[in-house]
Sequence to fold (222 residues):
Amino acid sequence: MIEDLFADDDSVPRQWQESLTPGAVILRGFVLDTAPVLLQQIDAIASCAPFRHLVTPGGHVMSVGMTNCGLLGWVSDELGYRYSGIDPVSQAPWPLMPDIFRQLAVEAAAVAGFANFNPDACLINCYQPGSRLTLHQDKNERDFSQPIVSVSLGLPATFLFGGLQREDVCQRFPLVHGDVMVWGGPSRLRYHAVLPLKEGIPPWPLRDAVRYNLTFRRVLAA
Ligand code: MD6
Ligand code: FE
Fold:
């Protein structure tokens, strides 16, 4: 179902919704207007908590650079995946979640039908050309009744969206600058992946040919 929200004339709409599966929707263009501010905030966060390449429990160095803001941050090392209130690099708390981040995440969740989303964690991913994320479920959180809100900025990526079993076939679709994906409910534990990022020209006002992804989550019981 494709629903045109904000076309004020016959020109190309800037925002619309694409429903994927029950509980999962892409809000195309939802953060196009706020993207410049979001990118500034990412730079400010990364100046305190720089992007780093985490090691998986299996001993692989992740190709995606990661940092966090908010009360809790997602981390990985030889011992496993978990959330931590302390940045293991700086040994300090993660930078605060900017109000503009929280507001857009709460608003996107509400538009997608999830009232009262109250994120306590924001993982920030930085993809360089070639970076990818292998098939996984997001299951380190306590409360699967809360959705995940995922914001795409910068270069486009191909997202694979599977089922509840690793073997299930995946749908593939593009995520581009300004898109927000919300998923929860019966889709909350679907497997998903990001294909290796292709080279490209970054959209204004980005200077670097990278993709950023913000994923907002409620980790602690609400
Ligand atoms: C990404 N996103 O888009 C990686 N997980 O860069 C995720 O792994 C993800 O977008 C859960 C929910 C939404 C996501
Ligand atoms: Fe994920």
